[in-house]
């Protein structure tokens, strides 16, 4: 395991997290959250169906899943500074190409480029960068980064709507491309330190050195963790895309459904704040169990189709999802230690991103063929399997 170099200056964590937080808000706003605002204007202006437009994001997620393991290994070897900066350059290129696209093939090429950028610039790459820089002491910084990144939809959606209204969807893409070049690249190069040895400060008895595990035990533990994170990604991606449709199919009025959907964001922030404060004293396995349990309870409470209960359900679901956004980064760090953290995060990200791409498509097929109650029951079952797998992870 690499030893900390005492001749190197201490990292200013506040500046580092502030810079990376801005980078995450920009990255999520211009990739994952972009279709939510721009898909309809794109469809109306080009004649492409909404399905074809949204499939661009699915393509990007599949590309990101395919190259995430390689990105994680590169961060382990070279650090994340240049990779995060490169992600902003690739996002700028992809967004500029998207803004200029008049043919569907060019639009999908743009999302392919953005897919490479997402692998190199979203949470998994950012977590790996913090792990490489801070080693075993990175847990609180990962929590802080997700807390800042949680404002991506709060900032991104209104900004995208404003840009689309003033400049059209093509102009919005060009402005976002410029923002990556003028904001994203400079902040990564200015505030993320160059490659340095990671800290190895102990975290009590909560850390397991991956090198001390037998190959079979390591493989079983890793597969359990991958199963948990992949199943949760499948659930959350399906809910995030189809929640409003599900609520309407349950007989809840559109205005009420919109109000219920607005609860998710604040609930996620509350969950992240709770984990960032008192949750630091809790083993990430127990935090993950709590997060999955809250998500499971929230999904199950939607099935009765009672509006007042749906508000409670989404609050529970949002809080659980907020906690799990943090533990997807802290759990691998504490279970396996900082050595090889980047490569491990890349391997875990691959099936998660593929699940995020496939989940909404599968959920749409179930809604078309069956009912909202069937989809919710299936998602609750998937969350329950995730809870079982989480319960088998070590918690001390």
From TrEMBL:
<dbReference type="InterPro" id="IPR020846">
    <property type="entry name" value="MFS_dom"/>
</dbReference>
<feature type="transmembrane region" description="Helical">
    <location>
        <begin position="16"/>
        <end position="34"/>
    </location>
</feature>
<feature type="transmembrane region" description="Helical">
    <location>
        <begin position="106"/>
        <end position="130"/>
    </location>
</feature>
<feature type="transmembrane region" description="Helical">
    <location>
        <begin position="286"/>
        <end position="303"/>
    </location>
</feature>
<keyword id="KW-0472">Membrane</keyword>
<feature type="transmembrane region" description="Helical">
    <location>
        <begin position="249"/>
        <end position="274"/>
    </location>
</feature>
<dbReference type="InterPro" id="IPR011701">
    <property type="entry name" value="MFS"/>
</dbReference>
<protein>
    <submittedName>
        <fullName>MFS transporter</fullName>
    </submittedName>
</protein>
<feature type="transmembrane region" description="Helical">
    <location>
        <begin position="46"/>
        <end position="67"/>
    </location>
</feature>
<feature type="transmembrane region" description="Helical">
    <location>
        <begin position="142"/>
        <end position="163"/>
    </location>
</feature>
<feature type="transmembrane region" description="Helical">
    <location>
        <begin position="169"/>
        <end position="189"/>
    </location>
</feature>
<keyword id="KW-0812">Transmembrane</keyword>
<feature type="transmembrane region" description="Helical">
    <location>
        <begin position="79"/>
        <end position="100"/>
    </location>
</feature>
<feature type="transmembrane region" description="Helical">
    <location>
        <begin position="375"/>
        <end position="393"/>
    </location>
</feature>
<feature type="transmembrane region" description="Helical">
    <location>
        <begin position="221"/>
        <end position="243"/>
    </location>
</feature>
<dbReference type="InterPro" id="IPR036259">
    <property type="entry name" value="MFS_trans_sf"/>
</dbReference>
<feature type="domain" description="Major facilitator superfamily (MFS) profile">
    <location>
        <begin position="16"/>
        <end position="396"/>
    </location>
</feature>
<dbReference type="Pfam" id="PF07690">
    <property type="entry name" value="MFS_1"/>
</dbReference>
<dbReference type="InterPro" id="IPR050327">
    <property type="entry name" value="Proton-linked_MCT"/>
</dbReference>
<keyword id="KW-1133">Transmembrane helix</keyword>
């Amino acid at each position: 395991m690499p030893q900390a170099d005492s001749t190197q200056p201490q990292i200013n964590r506040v500046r580092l997290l502030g810079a990376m937080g801005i980078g995450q808000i920009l990255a999520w706003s211009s990739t994952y959250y972009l279709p939510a605002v721009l898909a309809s204007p794109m469809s109306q202006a080009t004649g492409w169906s909404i399905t074809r437009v949204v499939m661009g994001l699915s393509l990007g997620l599949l590309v990101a899943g395919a190259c995430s393991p390689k990105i994680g290994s590169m961060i382990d070897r070279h650090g994340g500074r240049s990779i995060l900066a490169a992600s902003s350059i690739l996002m700028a290129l992809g967004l500029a190409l998207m803004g200029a696209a008049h043919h569907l093939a060019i639009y999908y090429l743009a999302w392919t480029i953005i897919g490479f950028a997402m692998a190199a610039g979203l949470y998994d790459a950012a977590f790996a960068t913090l792990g490489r820089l801070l080693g075993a002491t990175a847990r609180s910084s990962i929590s802080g980064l997700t807390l800042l990144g949680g404002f991506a939809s709060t900032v991104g959606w209104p900004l995208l709507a404003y840009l689309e209204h003033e400049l059209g969807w093509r102009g919005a893409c060009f402005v976002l491309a410029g923002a990556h070049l003028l904001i994203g690249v400079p902040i990564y190069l200015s505030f993320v330190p160059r490659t340095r040895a990671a800290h190895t400060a102990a975290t009590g008895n909560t850390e397991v050195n991956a090198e001390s595990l037998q190959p079979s035990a390591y493989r079983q533990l890793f597969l359990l963790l991958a199963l948990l994170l992949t199943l949760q990604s499948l659930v959350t991606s399906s809910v995030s895309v189809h929640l409003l449709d599900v609520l309407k199919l349950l007989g809840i009025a559109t205005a009420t459904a919109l109000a219920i959907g607005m609860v998710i964001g604040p609930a996620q922030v509350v969950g992240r704040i709770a984990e960032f404060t008192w949750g630091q004293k809790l083993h990430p396995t127990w935090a993950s169990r709590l997060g999955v349990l809250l998500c499971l309870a929230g999904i199950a409470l939607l099935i009765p189709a009672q509006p007042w209960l749906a508000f409670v359900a989404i609050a529970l679901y949002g809080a659980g999802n907020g906690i799990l956004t943090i533990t997807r980064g802290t759990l691998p760090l504490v279970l396996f230690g900082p050595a090889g953290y980047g490569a491990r995060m890349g391997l875990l990200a691959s099936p998660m991103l593929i699940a995020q791409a496939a989940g909404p498509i599968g959920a749409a097929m179930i809604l078309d063929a069956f009912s909202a109650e069937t989809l919710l029951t299936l998602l609750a079952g998937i969350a329950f399997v995730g809870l079982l797998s989480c319960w088998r992870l070590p918690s001390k």
